[in-house]
Amino acid sequence: MNEEIKLKILQKIESYQTIVVSRHIRPDGDAVGSTKGFVKLLKDTYPEKNIYLVDEDFSDYLSFCGGEDTIADEVYKDALLIVIDTGTRKRISNSKYGLAKEIIKIDHHIEADPYGDLNWVEDFRSSACEMLADFYLTFKDRLKMTPEAATFVYMGMVTDSGRFRFEGVKGETLRLAGALLDCGVDYETLFAHLYVEDFEAFKLKAYVYENLTITKNGVAYIYMDRATQEKFGLTLEEASSVVGELSDIKGSLIWVAFIENMKEKNIRVRLRSRFLGINDLAIKYHGGGHNMAAGATVYSEEEMYALVEDADKLLGEYKATHEDLI
User: Fold this and answer.
1) Is the dihedral of CA 307, 311, 317, 320 positive or negative?
2) How far apart are CA 52 and CA 29, in angstroms?
3) 2-194: which CATH architecture?
4) CA atoms of 152 and 34, how far apart (whole Å)
C-alpha cells in the first residue's frame, strides 16, 4: 500500500513545475530537518523546477539551518504543496496552504486529520525524516541526495528519536540512518550545533533540578512561568526543552514541562513517558502526538494541576500492575 503511495507522490512531484514545502508550527528538529532536507533533495534532483520552503514560525534553536522563503499568493495557484511532520491542518505553519492546487501530507503521527489529496502516514516511524530516508532509498536511481540534504534528514532522525533511544526506533531506523551517513553526513558539525551548550544552559539545568516536583506515584513536572523564562532569557522553545532534563529520575515514568505562554495566554505542555502511553492524556487536554511523546495546552493553573493529578493516577494504575519497573 505505502509503496503505491510513495510512487504516486514521486509522480506528482515530477508532474509539477512549482512545489511548496511546509511544516508544523513551533518547529522541532524533525520538522526543520525533513523540510530543509526534502527541499534540498528536490532542488538538486530537479534544478529546473521552482521549489520553495514556506514557514510562518521560527526556531531559534535551529537557526543555524538557515531561513525560509517568502512567496506571493499567486504562486500557489498551480503549485503542489507538500506538508511534512504535521498531523492536523490547524498545526500547519503556512496560513496560505488552502491556495495550493493539490496537497500531499507526509507524516508519522497518529492519523487524526487526513487533509491531503495524498496522505502518506506511517505512525510506526520514529520520525518524518526516517520516512524521507526511506523515500530516497526507494527511488535512489531517480533522486539525488547530497551531503547537505542528508545532514538535514539525519538531524531530524537523531533529534526526534532522542539519539535513537525513543519508542519507534527499530533496526530499519538504524539501517536508514546508516544509508544517510553513506551519503556524507557532516555529523561532527551537526552535533556541535545541536548539543554544545553555553554555560548559562547549565545554570538553567541547576534551576530545573532544584525546582522540579515529583508526585506520589512518580510524575516529575516543572512550571516555567514568565518570570523564570525572563530570568534565563529563554524563548518558549528553549523553555519547553527542559522536559528532557526530567527523563532520568528513577521511578519517574511520566515527566511534564508546563510553559507559560503570555502571547497566547495559555500554558504549553510537553509530556513524555517511559513504558506507558500518554497520548490519550494529551488529547484530553487539547493536544496529542505520539504514544510516549506528546504536547497539550492548558488555560489555567487549575487545569495544569488537574493534568498532573490525572497523570499521577495514570502512573499509579500502571505501577500497580507492573512490578520491577526502573
Assistant:
1) negative
2) 19
3) Alpha-Beta Complex (3.90)
4) 7
Residue 7: what are its φ and ψ, rounded to 5°? -65, -40
CB 262 within 8 A of CB 226: yes
Name the CATH topology of 199-320.
Diaminopimelate Epimerase; Chain A, domain 1 (3.10.310)
User: Which residue shows C-alpha cell 558539525?
Assistant: 189
DSSP 111: P
- Return the SS3 of 104: strand
- Which sequence spans correspond to the domains of the chain? 2-194, 199-320
> Which three cell numbers mark 156?
531530524
Contact 155, 33 (CB under 8 A): yes
Query: pLDDT by residue (tens digit) across 105-145?
Result: 999 988 888 999 999 999 999 999 999 999 999 999 999 99
Q: How confident is the model at residue 179 (pLDDT cuts 50, 70, 90)?
A: very high
Look up residue 198 and give its three cell numbers.
553555553
